[in-house]
């Protein structure tokens, strides 16, 4: 498991290098900076692969901080289970109908991410999920395909980003590699490869591989 998570970490660092390169070339058009937490609000789905990688960072925090996070996560998960009684340990979103996901993560939710420190920085910045690393600036594949039609409104204001070829990155290939790692993870934990297994950051605080393995079909 450690080796697989290490390979995923390398893939995540590739995203970081792309993002850093974009800042170097277009820093005057990018407001994102470490400590900015405007996007770190509400809930959003992350993969179980992200959750377990995130957990590796949480486990390295001081015990007092871990305890505080577990308390906050348990409280948040209880409120989510109250909202949808089917959303229970191990808190896998795919076990409930997708039409019910929106009620668990409404767009108007401005609750700060529980992994934010008082200064707005992320407590586990090096292990943050893929979504967190991709958020903020346009995602353009090297083919020219736009993979996301929204980004931070403070970035690239009034600019046709489609013309900025140096923003492009082989994202389709990167996502294919992510899927291969995810399928390998689920094959090890569940005995079969699946393409989707999603949860929330509060669940990642208390989730472990054993809980996921409990989903294995008998």
UniProtKB/TrEMBL annotation:
Annotated InterPro entries: Puta_zinc/iron-chelating_dom (IPR005358)
Native source organism of the sequence: Oryzomonas japonica
Any Pfam family the entry gives: CxxCxxCC
Protein's name in the database: YkgJ family cysteine cluster protein
């Amino acid at each position: 498991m450690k080796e697989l998570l290490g390979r995923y970490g390398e893939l995540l660092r590739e995203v970081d290098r792309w993002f850093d390169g974009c800042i170097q070339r277009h820093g005057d058009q990018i407001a994102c900076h470490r400590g900015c937490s405007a996007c770190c609000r509400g809930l959003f789905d992350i993969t179980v692969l992200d959750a377990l990688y995130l957990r590796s960072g949480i486990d390295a925090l001081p015990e007092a901080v871990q305890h505080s996070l577990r308390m906050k996560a348990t409280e948040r998960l209880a409120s989510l289970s109250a909202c949808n009684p089917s959303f229970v340990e191990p808190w896998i979103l795919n076990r409930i109908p997708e039409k019910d996901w929106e009620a668990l993560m409404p767009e108007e939710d401005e609750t700060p991410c529980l992994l934010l420190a008082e200064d707005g920085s992320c407590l586990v910045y090096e292990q943050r999920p893929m979504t967190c690393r991709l958020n903020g600036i346009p995602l353009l594949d090297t083919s020219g395909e736009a993979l996301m039609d929204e980004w931070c409104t403070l970035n690239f204001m009034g600019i046709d980003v489609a013309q900025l070829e140096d923003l492009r990155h082989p994202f389709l290939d990167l996502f294919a590699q992510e899927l291969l790692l995810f399928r390998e993870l689920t094959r090890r934990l569940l005995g079969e490869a699946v393409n989707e297994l999603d949860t929330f950051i509060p669940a990642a605080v208390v989730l472990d591989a054993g809980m996921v393995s409990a989903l294995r079909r008998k």
